[in-house]
Amino acid sequence: MHKLSLNLCFIFLLIGFFGFSQTPKKTLHTKFCAEKIAIDGKLTEPIWANAEIATNFTMTSPDNGKPESKDRKTEVKVVYDNDAIYIGAILYDNEPTKIRKELTSRDDWATADMFAVFLNGYNDSQQESRFIVSAAGVQLDCIYTSTNGEDYSWNAIWDSHVEITSYGWVVEMKIPYAAVRFSSDKKQTWGLNFFRDVSRDRQQFSWNLIDNKINNESVQAGILDGIENIETPTRLFLIPYASYYVNSTKEQTTGKLKGGLDIKYGINDAFTLDAIMVPDFGQTAYDNIVLNLSPFEQQFSENRPFFTEGTDLFSKGNIFYSRRIGGGPSTYANLGTDEIFTKNPATVNLLNALKISGRTKSGLGIGVLNAVTDKTFAEIKNTATGAERKELVEPLANYNVLVLNQRFRKNSSVSLVNTNVTRNGEFRDANVSALVFDLNTTKNTFNVSGDYKYSYVNDFGTSENKKGHEMSLNLAETSGKFRYSIGSEFYSKDYDPNDLGINYQTHYHNIYTNQSYRILNPTKRFNSFYFNLNEYVEFDNRTDRLQNANFSLDINTTNKKNDYYGIGFSLRPLKTSDFYEPRSDFEMKYVVQPEFINPWFYLSTNYNRKFALDFNPSFSIINEKNRYNLNASITPRYRFSDKFSLSYSFSYNYQNNNVGWVAFDDSSNTIFARRNRTTYSNALQGKYSINNVMNFNLSVRHYWSYALNNKFMTLQENGTLTDNTTYTTNQDRYYNSWNLDLSYSWWFAPGSQISVLYRNSSSYYPDADFSQDYGQNFKNLFRADSLNNVLSISVRYFIDYNRIKH
């Protein structure tokens, strides 16, 4: 099987090197500017009068291919100097009083008209830096790739200004070369596109048509030429920070001062080094922790800026999960008789981190990431003798990621990725490598993608070293109204990327197919219509037992009023064998899972209205007596003004006669329970924007979930469950949490920010006084011994080396 897969990969790589052709693209010629340009949204400098104009925009949505109307035409000009490129855009509107201009925080796509420029310094049609500004002057920026779409975690430092006029609105932008990667050629040729969003009509336009028949936007950009002999300044930026934290609990109030430094250095115009010294992530968003009864860990989003910005290269192969760095210790302390933890760390301390990334003229992308975490100890006390000791649960550890990504033919790539973790002393080390390919035909109508991954874990002590692998292949038709795909994956039993990645299941192989249909232009009833059918089957490698069989259908539409409706269902028509829920050694035991059907409905009304509503009910019927699930979520939102808005979200989940693992008894039997589980989640989001750089934001979440066991059962060798009347240990589970963040942010200069955060949080684990009463459990969160209060003030200041030099 290994030889066949490698041969297929080789054949597809050869196919990928065939020639590339494309339809003619629009070209805009830019001019060098010797005069100083003020970014004021007025376009009064003489250079603008003589600059070439990009016009004749075309609608991309909803009526793909329709020319722009004369009363809403768009005109854009581009000039440059040795520091930056400058964009001046006039966006005509016959009803300027109706231009939407809601104020929000940076990178928040709100109810506002938008203008954007898409830049590709290598003109390789594979990655764009997108700079967006709203009619309210709010900046957004992202990295776009056809694989990952738009990644708004990337933040560049650039300048813009907007003016609302009697004939529409005007945008002026200054984008420093430091915000764009490009080759060292004396004569530059960049990929270029412009984008406009008219919010009130949900209409979007582009300069070079983005044809929705093609599932790749970046290959459809135009050309920017004329940039020649630029003398780019040294790209060295220092961002020192200082933060002060006041932490208050029932026991004490403490204060802590932190300071550190971020460094960004342009090795050349293509490669950049980012480093953080003594990092501070105290103001990142809180994690939405849930009551997790599954056999798998809960996966969290990355909120730390260093690990979210510009990570396209490091996401290749999907073997890098950055939350491992500074996450939980890799081992656990052992308690002796009469011993308790006085300190049992849930995370380890990150000492420093750096990354180097960029791309050569030939299209070779190189990414290197390194991070070092500190030694971490658990502190233990003997309650009988009073003796105290420390036990090392995580040594000094070094994390590394290396990525080599070769792009070619303007729409294909091959990547080699390696991650490794080296821990000091007699602790576990790990190494994972991946070969990843993504190949497209010349007309972007067909895609072949896949990978081969190999993991090696070096465990000390009695544990054996592990070697495992994973391979996948996917074939897809990617253009037109009808599209389809078929693929397969294979995971060996010892494949383990989890020291620096995250993977839940192993020892299985699968096959999946997809068929879809969409309209490409509006009809009398719909602005959009999408039909999707998926089939998925999965087998255990060791026994060939069916692990999963799932079929799903969904239909998604947008009506002429731009309200969105979705309806569908998922179905498991056969019994399956779950090897993960029993938590057995080497996952050899399994439990039989019954058939089910799960219909759902989704409604999202047009956000242009002051009041909008999202509503998503669903239910599941499981093929066992009185076993079913009910789910519902509702999110009303109201925009009081362009400055102030609130949204409230409520979700409810009830599982009747749910079945799941709870424990092992004294005779090593696997004990399951039939249980009822109830979950409530309430969340409130609010924002008040003083202007486009100064915002207040509110985020509140209350989560309450409990699972009450009705009876216990013993797992049998054939995967069935029999009643157990002797096991009586209380295995009910509860989790009750509260989080409130109220923040103020002021971008007082490009790249420089003052932020103030008040955080109020609490977690409560009821035991003997457990009650199903919602109000009582909500009150318990505000007991003095549960609450934690943090007030923090942080100042980050952007320093450009060139300004210091002068």
Feature tags:
single chain; 806 residues; mainly beta; 24-stranded antiparallel β-barrel; nine-stranded mixed sheet; 45 strands; globular
Protein described:
The protein is mainly beta. The strands form five sheets. The protein has a 24-stranded antiparallel beta barrel. Strands 1, 3, 6, 7, 8, 9, 12, 13 and 14 form a nine-stranded mixed β-sheet that branches. A hairpin with a 3-residue loop joins strand 23 (397-408) and strand 24. The longest helix is centred in the first third of the chain and has 15 residues, at 2-16. It starts with a helix and ends with a helix. The model is unreliable at 1-23 (pLDDT under 50).
Which sheet architecture does the biggest sheet show? 24 strands, antiparallel, barrel
Instruction: Give me the count of strands.
Output: 45
Radius of gyration: 28 Å
How much helix is in the residues? Answer: under 10%
Mean pLDDT: 92
DSSP strand content: over 45%
